[in-house]
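I am writing to request your help with a piece of structural work I have in hand. A protein sequence and the structure tokens that stand for its backbone fold form the material at issue. Please examine both parts with care and let me know of anything in them that strikes you as inconsistent. The record follows directly beneath this note.
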Amino acid sequence: MSLQANLSLSDYCSFDHVYREVLCPFFESLDDQRDFSQSYALADCLKAGFSIYSLKTASMYQFRKMAQVEEQNLSTVFRMGPIPGDNGLRKVLDGLDSERLRHGFVKLQEHLMGSAELVRRYRAWQDYLVVSVDGVEHFCSKKVSCPRCLTRKHRDDSQSNYHCMLSAALVHPDRSEVFPLDHEPILRSDGQVKNDCERNAAYRLLDHFQQAHNQLKTIFVMDALYSCGPIIRRLQEVDHWRYVIGVKEDGNAHLFGQFDRLNEAGRVKWMDHEDSKGQKWQVAYVNGLELNASTTDVKVNMLYAMGKDAKGRQLVFSYATNIKLTKKNVGRILAIGRSRWKIENETFNTLKNQGYNFKHNYGHGKEYLSTVMAYLMMMAFWLDQLQQAANRTFNALLTELKTRVKLWDSLRAVFKLIEVKSMKQLHTKIADMYCVWLI
């Protein structure tokens, strides 16, 4: 998909364009494989689930009884046909294998890559995009469970049932937007230890990512959990993949021992660096070290940085990478490594605290419902992030209303009371209410 010559970047990144040109066709392309009554189309149920997160609705209860205006707006804005009530909607979505939804993120990424301007903005080093990988829990209950639930025991001998997934998101050191690219459920078979669970899921995630984004020049940023020989070998199998992975002394003693010996011998290079925010660092780097004693064939380059935060507290970061470190690039590689936090700060925390009801139980189901809803939420978040990146109307409203929560509250209120034909018209109505000047 390419940016049309007669379409501005703002319109290309608008809700209406992306939803109608990318998400609607994707939802409608999924074959309905239910073996029970098909009174309601699967595509319409997916659109309903998506609308919950797009409108930041706190409950599925809205689908039991709606005002005429709200029903009309769901039809026009979300192109939704007849849908069941909340229990019927849960039943339909519970039966959809969540794996079938993952291609939706590929379609969204293709849309982003269709704009040369967007690609330019999010290239972080040379032609590379940065992808942060981290695990997140998206359901937990002591009372509700399904055969796919993971379990954890507590000191009081009680048990929690939960769902986790390993997420990969496009990030940039200098930009706040984060775009979820892929999500791999963590399964019971992955084990009971966090290291085993997330690492086993990581192999599947990387396999799927390679298939789905086989031409994407990628720098993976990951925490120290992944600083092991098997994961790094897997990353090194793909010529156009790079990595910047956190390392720690307790888990990578052999690597730090080499660094210390070379430093004592004067073979580690040190330099002062001031980052884009004016923070000062002492940075050390050396190339060609063994990752650990058991995998001496795996060679990495090591970056070590020391600085202080605004309160004067010591900050230390250390990374292993397969990018050859030089005086010219070491500051940028440090920024790329530190951008790993964006998947947690800008994605997971936003979803939990800014109206997406991330850990709210919309219904757990018996099969796939929990993961299906998590995926639909990530798609809605992706589209919000794209609007934030380049849509003028969305950003004018966000600037004037100050917080996303207030914007979502206004959006829901107008949606229930005033008939609109599109999300752009809905945004315009909100702008009129608050006297926001739209260019």
The first helix runs from residue 9 to 12. The first strand starts at residue 123 and ends at 125. The mean pLDDT is 91.
